[in-house]
Structures are given as structure tokens and as C-alpha cells.
Specification:
heterodimer
């Protein structure tokens, strides 16, 4: 008789996956309520500015594009 | 699962985290919320510890998948608005292709260890304040 192997510990079962499915659906609904169009891929301006500042002040030679364009 | 206030509060916090994009510094908060949700769901559904751990890690994966388009857009924008050493035509596509998996992969790789760390801390297994420093 073939016996299905036990899944490794920590592997989600169908029941656990359905729980995660529901939580994800609720998360999507919560995101929609925030009305920020999270799935359009539009990065937040403030966080982008912070990341740009960090990159360009890192001393690794990264500069804003407009500066490199200058002769 | 019957959603209760505790679960909903965690979900709302996750939505808040994801709503302005995902960066590596969101990792700890995201993983904490996944654990909170798993714990709260576990109480409702009478899950074992390992089942709650599996739910938490599954949720982290799904939250990351949800955030993936924004991570890509964020990295694209950084590559488009900065210049580093090397020609843009060569470097920018590499950055755009490589950076998002690094960000998402870092969070994903950290998740199991951070979940275990959180569980240990909540069980009092970390003795961080044992000695008074005055």
C-alpha cells in the first residue's frame, strides 16, 4: 500500500492555505480602503526621496541622472 | 476563519505598511504582523504551534507577493533617476532585474529566523534584561 509521505514540518496544508487566502483577501480589501492604488506600482514619493538621498550620499558614485548629464 | 478585531487590526497595519511600498526596513514589522495574525487565527482555529508558524510564513510570502509590483516600480524608479558608474544602457536593466528579488528575497530569507526569534522572545527565552546596568 502506497502511503503518502508526511509533509515537512512547517509546510502549509490546504486548511492553512485557505486561512492565508482569507487573510490575504482581507488585506487586499484593507488596501483598497486606503485608496492608494497599491497594485499600480506607483512608489511613494516620500520614501523614494529618502531612498534617493541615501543612494546619492552613499559615496558609491551614484548621482541623480540630471547631474551626470552635465559636461 | 471568523475575523475578529485583533486579526483585523493586524491586517490593517499590514495594509498600512504595504500601501507606501515595501522596503527591507519594513521586514520586522511585516513579519511581526504575520505572527500576530497567525497567533490570533490559531486561537480561533485551535492551531498547533507549528501550524501557526506555517501560517505566519505563508502570510509573509503572500504579503511579499502582494508588494512585488511596488518593489519593482520602486527599483525601476531609482534606476531611472540615478546614475552610477558604468553606462545606463548596461547598468540600469541589471539593477531593475536584480534589485527587486534581492529586496524580496532578503525579507523572505529572514522570515523563518525572525518568526522563531519572536516566539522565543514571547516565551521569555531571551534574557536580555537579566543584569541591571544602573
Amino acid at each position: 500500500v502506497a502511503v503518502a509521505p508526511m509533509p515537512p514540518e512547517g509546510t502549509p496544508t490546504d486548511k492553512l492555505r485557505s486561512i492565508a487566502d482569507q487573510v490575504l483577501a482581507e488585506t487586499n480589501a484593507a488596501l483598497a480602503r486606503l485608496e492608494r492604488k497599491p497594485r499600480t506600482g506607483r512608489p511613494c514619493a516620500k520614501r523614494t526621496r529618502v531612498a534617493l538621498d541615501a543612494l546619492t550620499s552613499s559615496g558609491e558614485g551614484v548621482v541623480p541622472k540630471k547631474e551626470k548629464a552635465k559636461p | 476563519v471568523k475575523m475578529n478585531e485583533r486579526i483585523q487590526a493586524s491586517i490593517d497595519r499590514v495594509a498600512g505598511l504595504l500601501s507606501d511600498g515595501l522596503q527591507v526596513d519594513d521586514a520586522a514589522a511585516l513579519i511581526r504582523e504575520a505572527v500576530e495574525v497567525a497567533e490570533a487565527v490559531g486561537e480561533v482555529e485551535a492551531l498547533t504551534g507549528s501550524e501557526k508558524r506555517a501560517v505566519a510564513l505563508d502570510l509573509v510570502d503572500r504579503f511579499l507577493a502582494l508588494a512585488a509590483p511596488q518593489v519593482q516600480a520602486f527599483c525601476d524608479h531609482l534606476a531611472d533617476t540615478t546614475d552610477g558608474p558604468g553606462p545606463d544602457w548596461l547598468v540600469d536593466p541589471i539593477v531593475k532585474r536584480a534589485a527587486p528579488p534581492i529586496v524580496v528575497g532578503t525579507v523572505r530569507k529572514l522570515a523563518p529566523a525572525l518568526v522563531d526569534l519572536l516566539v522565543d522572545a514571547s516565551r521569555g527565552k531571551l534574557a536580555l534584561n537579566d543584569t541591571a546596568t544602573g
